[in-house]
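ASSEMBLY PREDICTION REQUEST
Request ID: AP-0331
Submitted by: J.K., bench scientist
Number of chains: two
Total residues: 636
Priority: normal
Notes: Please return the full assembly, not individual chains.
Input sequences:
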Amino acid sequence: MQNLILYSLSNFIPETILVVTIIVCIIADLIIRKKSFAVTFVAIVGLVLSFVFVVKQWGLSMSIFSGMLAIDNYAVFFKLLFIISTLFILLFVETSKEMKTASHKNEHVYLILSLTTGAYLMASSVNLIMMYISLEMVSLTSYILAGYLKKDKRSTEAAIKYIIYGAASSGIMLYGMTLIYGYTATMNINEIFLYLSKNPITDTPVLLASVIMISAGFGYKISSVPFHFWTPDVYEGAPIPITAFLAVTSSAAGFSVLVRFFLVGFANTEIITAVKWQEVIIVFSIASMIIGNFVAVWQTSLKRLLAYSSIAQSGYILLGLAVVNSAGLFAVILYLSAYLFMNLGAFYVTILIHNKLGTDNMDEMDGLGYRSPFIGVTMAVFMFSLAGIPATVGFIGKFYIFSALINTNSPNLTWLAVVGLLNSVVSLFFYVKVLKHMFLNKPEKPLPELDYGYANILITLLLAVPTILFGLYFTPLLRLAENSIKIFGLN
Amino acid sequence: MLSEFGQIFVFMIIAVILIAFIYVVVRFIAPHKPSRQKSDVYECGEETEGETWIRFNIRFYVIALIFIIFDVEIIFLFPWAVVFREIGFIAYAEMAIFLLILIVGLIYAIAKGDVQWDKPEPVIPKLERQLFSAKPDINKKDNQY
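STATUS: Completed
Returned structure:
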């Protein structure tokens, strides 16, 4: 037993490094007692160290802590994604004016790191209990981060709304888990799969109900309809760097655990025909795409527009899961890595605009493309990528999702690809609307030019260049995605 | 034969019946002489004062939160103490790390001033206008002092 724990600990180094970094950050914050880059620097060092040890785990396949966590390429892929997005978010916070108004000095650093630790655990958990605990770890820190600007009314409102929705949906999820436990007498998803595939499935309504209930918890994290109600308000109220963090890390963590739960626990033709979870996912994804895209058309606030856009994006990613084969999963992984760059980029440009204008209302952005051509052009790159225009990484993601839908035969899902494509057309409308405000609408009176510092331009380029580069030369992404999904053994 | 969950169901039924039974028996046996003190709200033996629905200071919650950290810590210490001899030094080191992490939490709470009961500044009442513009003239006859 003792040796088992020590063995598990030796494979738990990336998480341990993050936890130690959090404690060092807290102590550094207590000693320095004022706003300082040193705390952020400690966090960056910790993340880079953790990155090194995560890369070392590539190729391993084992389960540690008596079947609680799995270490495999799939988890490693998500951990790398979390590290990259956390590094960007730490830089975002440093350059955001909004975050400087907070009464706290350095707390955001270790809150962000604890969210990343929770996301690590989510990506590698193979046990229902572990899934729940890590999901709560991510949720609890994101509630605090959403209300980070304590003096700001809307930030506090966002935190309260987030808590209420979060508590309700994780409660529903727990109830679903108890139903599954009652049915299969195990919490481990591998054993759940063994039980379901060996024994005849009798009480399908119970299993279907429990699957839907568990989707409530995961669906709330990925903000898919009908669990999306918190998204616009929280995205609008929270400070923009935090919004970006929730939109990318927290939602990618939700996808990691959702995909693992369904594709490890329930991916078998007999189980799919009996439990019909595929239909549930299809319904969720169509609803997310339609509501996300059509409501986004009416938004005037850029943050709310991005909120509805991310609801719609989660609908597209769910399409990839609904295919239930390796091509679909491949597309999901590819889309998530594309989503990292383009969504972070869109949010960073929003931060830069907010820094100068003090608002994210799109009517105030008239003529912004001429006031600062750099902002206009990079925003165009990210918006086209989110819409899925060729020569951007967003196109690659959408292309593989739709081709997976068209190529599958059991059942025929071509109609779903058509629905997705029509939705993409709608989404193009509101993404281009942002650019219309920036370039075509003339402001009432001529406004001064905006100039940005080198740091701002560098961070934007770090996101804009991969968005275009991976859109043209995407072989590395394909390799990465191909190797990440091998453990599932899907056909 | 009952399944394991069936046994739990029987247990639940028995629990409900038993409690209902006790209530009914008490109804018949117990003397019923209510007085003002008996029907008051129970406050650990103190005499009841005022309403029960009062607001109380939010600082209590902070203290309670800090208390819970160390309350849970004790729960973890018990199983540790049982196996301490078998595992030896590693167990000692592990618990030391665990306690250190918690102590960092306590230091954090103290350093951020969460356990300080700073009283709000007393608001001294101030009048907008002066009561007497000048000294009253005592020589005047019609002064009613």
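REVIEWER COMMENTS: Chain B has one domain: 10-111.
SIGN-OFF: pending second reviewer
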